[in-house]
Amino acid sequence: MGLRVGVVTEAYVPSGGGGWTFSATLIEALRTVQSPHAFINLIHALQREESKDDARHTQEPSGLGLFRAVADKASTFVQKRFRRGGLGSADKTDRKQSPISSLEALARREKIDIVWFMTSMNEPLLLPFIATVWDLEQRNQPYFPEVSVTWTEREKVYSALLPRASLIITGTQAGKEQVVHYYRVNPANVMVIPFPVPADALMTQSLDAQGIRTKYKINGDFLFYPAQFWPHKNHVNLLRALRTLRDQNGLDLKLVFTGSEKGNFGHVEEVTADLNLVDQVFNLGFVSREDLNSLYKASTALVFPSYFGPDNLPPLEAFALGTPVIAANVAGAREQLGQAALLFDPSDPSDIAAKIEHLCRTPSLRAEMISKGKAIVAVCTPEAYIAALCSFLDRFEAIRRCWGVDYQLG
Fold first, then answer.
1. Boundaries of domain holding 133
2. Do 392 and 365 share a structural domain?
3. Exposed, middle or buried: residue 246 (CB in 10 Å: 0-12, 13-18, 19+)?
4. Per-residue pLDDT reduced to its tens digit, 305-350
5. Which of 135, 196, 242, 332 is the most buried (most CB within 10 A)?
């Protein structure tokens, strides 16, 4: 018969970066998946409750377009109804008057058997639930300010969420080992499902190589790094590598940054000026998805020096668009990227420069890397991700049928 699976997306907007891409990709896959299990987007169900007089919300939502249409509103719903309510909110449903969260109450009204938290930061439920973990860098690298500031909140969430999850999904074996090590969970309850390559619907391009160069006035061959301006994204060591390439290796490449400001943009601009790289660096800010894809396609390579792992989406996007990848050798990188990427020490600008030079001066290497990237794309599909999840649901159904949605302690 199948399970009713309540899906909770964090409802990122496109400017949110990887979180948006990950969620939108899987929602698009769920629209067409053939499975005995029914997937119900609880963000949309909540919106129907809030807007019962609005005919637009009377149909069961599906697909990427509808996800885009409500993304800006859904974040507000999550904050007001799920996060602030939490365990101990006003909704009470059992005869002992035990408080449950607004999300739990909604899931029960929707007759949900199990909830899938598609993104990372959520609250435990009394219903069975699946937790998704992208990274645990607040444990691995707590000195970065962006995780230091939120360290207490992240630890509170993960410490409560992960040990109680029916299943934890992570993208690599390295990620699984971190989950088990830091939170002492049963390894059998952690499933490795490789990150999905972004949906085809997200991969359309706006312009050809010359067109995108003209639009942004990029005069020459360029390296590409799409990343929000967080400190851990490591723009600074990439800039130092660019200086080395010019002054020591004779390669006068341009470098294009895209991404939203997260507090470190001013520092990156200052370092750019100090290194006398202003004429080589293009900071484009947030660009449309279509322009982003065009920049990938036109670039010499994606250079991805982020200190955070063990999974990252931009290299997969580059693979999908036929762009070579040069990336930081962080935990999980080789596992995720295989032999399709050149890896470097993210703290060593000379190593970054050496890997870039190797690609630029070895024409045959480019075609080889693109081919290997395409092979990864062929395996790490959104459909494969959903199929792996469904394999767990198939097994869990025999367990879940042992009690009803409205079960109460006797």
1. 4-196+381-400
2. no
3. middle
4. 999 999 999 999 999 999 999 999 999 999 999 999 999 999 999 9
5. 242
Q: How far is CA 389 from the centre of its chain?
A: 17
Instruction: Give 188: exposed, middle or buried? Use CB within 10 Å, 0-12, 13-18, 19+.
Output: exposed
Residue 301, Ramachandran bin (φ over 0: left; ψ between -120 and 50: alpha; else beta): beta
Same domain? For 343 and 389 the reply is: no
pTM (two decimals): 0.85
How many domains is the chain built from? 2
Instruction: Examine residue 116 and state whether it is found in any structural domain, yes or no.
Output: yes
Tell me the pLDDT of the chain averaged across its residues: 86
Q: Are residues 37 and 137 in the same domain?
A: yes
Q: Are residues 372 and 388 in the same domain?
A: no
**Does the pLDDT of residue 81 top 70, yes or no?**
no
346 and 204 both lie in a single domain: yes
- 9 and 146 in a common domain: yes
Domain with 117 in it: what CATH number? 3.40.50
* In a shared domain, residues 182 and 266: no
pLDDT at 201: 62
Number of residues written out for the chain: 410
Q: Are strands 222-226 and 301-304 parallel, antiparallel or unpaired?
A: parallel
pLDDT score, position 45: 60
Q: Which residues of 254-285 are buried (b: 16+ CB within 10 A; e: fewer)?
A: bbbbbbeeeebbeebeebbeebebeebbbbbe
Cα 226 to Cα 223: distance, rounded to the nearest angstrom? 10
